[in-house]
C-alpha cells in the first residue's frame, strides 16, 4: 500500500501529540500570575517536553532523509504537491527552531535546562539580558507561525480525506 | 596670625595622618568590583542571584589575622535573579520579607590561619534570624587591592527563607551557597 513507513507514522503522531501538549502547557504557564511552585513545575516540564520534541524531530528528519515519502496521487495538481512540500519543510524548520529558541531563551535568562531534573544540558551561552527579550519574541512569533502552519496542515489533510478522497491522508494513518 | 592658623592646621593634619597609620588599616571595599551572590538549585537547575547593593567593612592585617574583623551588610531588596517579576516576588513575606527585614548582616567573630587560607567564624543574620556560620576564606593581593573570596553554605529554611508552599525543598533546595568576592583598596 502507498504509505509512509511505520517508524515515520509513529514519529509523526507522537511528535504531533507532544507538540500540542507543549504548546498548551506553554500557554497555561505564562498565564499563571506571580511565582508559584506550580508555575515553576510547568516551566520545567515545558522545557523537558521541548527537548524531547527536538530530539525526536532530529531522529525523524534523519529517517525522512533516508526513507522517501510515498508519492502523491497522480491526479494531485503539481502546485498542490509543491505547496505541500513547502509546508512540510516549514513545519520541520519550526520543529527545530521553536525548541532551540526556547532553549537559548532559557540560557539567556540564566536558567540552564536540566532534562527530567536529571541531566544538565549544555550551557552554550552566558546569561544575556539584552538577548533574553529578543529570544522571547522569536520563540513567541515562531509559535504563531507554527499554529498557522499546523492549521493549514490539518485543513489540507481533512480536505484530501473528506472532499478529494484521494488517499493522501491515509498515507499517514496509524 | 594667618601663619599661626596655617601651622595649627598642618599640625592637626599631621597628627591625624599619624593616628591613621597607627590604627589597624580599615579597608575600603570597592563595591563596584566586589560581588555577593547566592547559588541554589530550583528543581535541580542551578540558579544564581546577585546582591547588587552591600557594604563591607573589613579590618585585616596579614600579620595579625586574629585581630581581623569584618562586617558585611547586604541590602536584600537588591537581590537580582535576572527577571523583574521574580525579583519582586522574592521580596515578599514568604521569602526575604524585605519590608520588615531590609538587610542581612554578617559579623565575624574569629579568624584563624589554616594552610594558606583562613577559617572564619561569624554570625549571619537574615530575616531577623541569627545563626553561627563558619567558612574558609581566601585572601589574595591583586595590585594595590586585597581580595577576600569565599563560599559560605547555608540552609535557607534555617532563616525561614521560603515559607508555606515554598518549604518544599524539591522545588527549591534547602542548600544555598553564598559566594562572595570583596575587593578592598588598602
Structural notes for this entry:
The complex is a heterodimer of chains A (174) and B (186). Chain A is mainly alpha-helical. Chain A has one domain. Chain A has four helices and two strands. In chain A, strands 1-2 form a two-stranded antiparallel sheet. In chain A, strand 1 and strand 2 form a beta hairpin. In chain A, helix 2 packs across helix 3 and helix 3 packs antiparallel against helix 4. Chain A is elongated, with a radius of gyration of 18 Å. Chain B has one domain: Beta Barrel (Lipocalin), CATH 2.40.128.110. Chain B is globular. Chain B is mostly beta strands and 186 residues long. About 4% of the residues of chain B have low confidence. Chain B starts with a helix and ends with a strand. An eight-stranded antiparallel beta barrel of chain B has the order 1-4-5-7-8-9-10-11. The interface between A and B is medium-sized, with 19 and 17 residues.
Q: Looking at CATH, which topology of chain B would you report?
A: Lipocalin
SS content category of chain B:
mainly beta
For the largest beta-sheet of chain A, the strand count, sense and barrel status come to: 2 strands, antiparallel
The helix-and-strand class of chain A reads mainly alpha
How many E strands of chain A?
A: 2
- Counted up, domains of chain B total 1
Hey, roughly how much beta strand do the residues of chain A contain?
Answer: under 5%
The strand order across the widest sheet of chain A is: 1-2
Helix content of chain B: 10-25%
Described by its quaternary structure, the protein is heterodimer
CATH homologous superfamily heading of chain B: Lipid/polyisoprenoid-binding, YceI-like
As for the number of domains of chain A, it is: 1
Q: What integer is the average pLDDT of chain B?
A: 87
Radius of gyration of chain B: 20 Å
How far apart are the termini of chain A?
Answer: 13 Å
Q: Return residue spans of chain B where pLDDT drops below 50 for at least 5 consecutive residues.
A: 17-23
Strand order, largest beta sheet of chain B: 1-4-5-7-8-9-10-11
Shape of chain A: elongated
Integer-rounded radius of gyration of chain A: 18 Å
